[in-house]
Amino acid sequence: xxxxxxxxLFMIVIIVMGGCGNVITxxxxxxxxxxxxxxYEDGEIGGDPVCPPFDGGLEFIDEENVYVxxxxxxxxxxxxxxDEGMELEFxxxxxxxxxxxxxxxxxxxxxxxGSGMIKTLNCFFEREE
Length: 129
Prior knowledge:
- Helices cover about 20% and strands about 45% of the residues.
- With about 130 residues, the protein is of the alpha+beta class.
- The strands form 2 sheets. It has an 8-stranded antiparallel β-sheet, with no helix packed on it.
């Protein structure tokens, strides 16, 4: 019976630790310019990107503001955990909110996938220091 409890505890610890590794913080995004380099679909880097609002790249200024190069303006952003992973929310000055699923592949690369009405959006960004 004792071995069964230990195994159960071990499995719970592994599940919890695995879930913690997927959390993305603002600090991971701040610094450098994030340039669009590829598409990003089903967790795979490659293909043609479909990323019209961000074709020119992004610059995360601080923990609340991101500069969208093509639009030449700042947006407020927020990272949050959802049932489907991490989400990046953009708050447009006109009151609109856009939601994207964000996946950090490494410290200098992340993928964005659209959700809601913009599900076709798929892009992979790499940091240029």
